[in-house]
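Repro:
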Amino acid sequence: GYFNLSSGILNNIYCCFLYIVFLMLKLWIVIDNLVMKNCTLINTTLAFEYSAVNAEINGKIDSVLNPASGTITADKIDELILERDRSDPEKLSIIIRQKDNS
């Protein structure tokens, strides 16, 4: 299936809201072909585990854990965890928009 709610601001808000609810409830969920455009993730840790994702995040992501594939774009990722036996870095592109000068 293809889960794309990126057309329109209400859909973007709904998509981000659902993802945050999943994380808050600690649901074990793997999303294939998750598309997130122009979203903000607040207090989000261990994001995108085992998911195929195309995410354009405004601001930072606290941590990303073992995404399956795709592209993740963010201003900053505090912690990127890629375990070679659980994630293939060759199938993943991480784009950081700005560098941390601290």
